[in-house]
Amino acid sequence: KAGVTQTPRYLIKTRGQQVTLSCSPISGHRSVSWYQQTPGQGLQFLFEYFSETQRNKGNFPGRFSGRQFSNSRSEMNVSTLELGDSALYLCASSLAGHRYGNTIYFGEGSWLTVV
Amino acid sequence: DQQVKQNSPSLSVQEGRISILNCDYTNSMFDYFLWYKKYPAEGPTFLISISSIKDKNEDGRFTVFLNKSAKHLSLHIVPSQPGDSAVYFCAASPRYSGAGSYQLTFGKGTKLSVIP
User: Fold this and answer.
1) Which three-class secondary structure string do you get for chain A?
2) pLDDT tens, residue order, chain A (115 aa)
3) Do A55 and B100 touch (CB under 8 A)?
4) Vertex A75 angle, CA A70 and A79, to 5°
């Protein structure tokens, strides 16, 4: 079965612009979460969506937002981009979310460079 | 404040020998732990997990040990193979969350190089 699909894989944006990243979870998975990976900070949790509702949110500014559609596909948006937003953005899906014992499956990520 | 720490940024091991990757945590609410492996330009891949009711879990060449009193876990790879060269992330989560879900907290990773 198909894995977690993220688009676009690579993109370059200018400071002040906004960006939207897309994620299609594994078929049947209802939970989608987003992580930011940077060399200095490692993998940091952004937010998790389950059945179109945000259930959990990490410590990121309000410029980072997301949503989930009825087909479980998810998008995340970053507005007013800053140089420090340059990172690998990873989407992960699981059957029932970040619940005890569930395995989280990651996509290949979207590489964002802000110039 | 880093709640999950992987203090060794890198580790080099000869092919065929044992690789031991370590992870420490500070949050006593964590009781489910996972290891992920990541190749460059790919997303992390789930390797193995362990819950706090166990002190060891084994899957083929991979074994994870958990020492709750020391808040320490380790991943053993025996024997190490060149294809194991990757970045390994330790992750942890609590059992309960008032929000109904919880986030995985990751360490910063250890880059393992297995030398042929």
Assistant:
1) CCCCEEECCEEEECCCCCEEEEEECCCCCCEEEEEEEECCCEEEEEEEEECCEEEEECCCCCCEEEEECCCCCEEEEECCCCHHHCEEEEEEEECCCCCCCCCCEECCCEEEEEC
2) 569 999 999 999 999 999 999 999 999 998 899 999 987 778 899 999 988 999 888 899 999 999 999 999 999 999 999 999 999 999 999 886 555 566 788 999 999 999 9
3) yes
4) 140
Contact B24, B86 (CB under 8 A): no
* Distance of residue A99 Cα from the nearest chain B Cα, in angstroms: 6
* CA A31/CA A110 separation, integer angstroms: 19
Q: Which residue has the higher pLDDT, B100 or A46?
A: A46
Taking the CA of residue B80 and the nearest CA in chain A, the distance in Å comes to: 24
Q: Do A100 and B32 touch (CB under 8 A)?
A: yes
Cβ contact B91:B38 at 8 Å: no
Amino acid at B13: V
Q: Which residues contact B53 (CB under 8 A, 6 or more apart)?
A: none
Identify which of A84, A3, A110, A102 has the alpha carbon closest to the alpha carbon of residue B103.
Answer: A102
Nearest chain B residue to A48 by CA distance is B103
Question: What 3-state class would DSSP assign to B82?
Answer: helix
Using the structure block, give the residue that is written with the tokens 């994620």: A23
